[in-house]
Design goal:
Radius of gyration: 19 Å
Helix content: over 70%
Number of domains: 1
Largest sheet: none
Number of strands: 0
Distance between the termini: 59 Å
Length: 81
């Protein structure tokens, strides 16, 4: 008899970290295996990735204020050395 994988509650709590690729390879593999066999968690994962993609798309259309990149570079130079 094999040991069951994490329950849905545990996977649900780790989905954000899974989506953000912040899990160890072993943890990610465990979550992926669960998603392959659990339709409810797989659906939640799909919703989260869809929301993330929509946010990324919206952010691509926001223009940074003029000179922002230069100010960031100057600040980094000043604080870095």
């Amino acid at each position: 008899m094999t040991t069951p994988g994490p329950d849905c509650r545990e996977v649900f709590q780790r989905l954000d970290d899974y989506v953000d690729r912040e899990l160890t390879p072993e943890e990610a593999c465990t979550v992926l295996r669960h998603l392959e066999h659990c339709a409810q968690c797989a659906e939640e994962f799909e919703v989260e990735t869809d929301v993330l993609e929509m946010l990324k798309e919206k952010l691509r259309h926001i223009a940074a204020p003029p000179g922002l990149m230069e100010r960031i570079a100057q600040r980094l130079d000043k604080e870095g050395g």
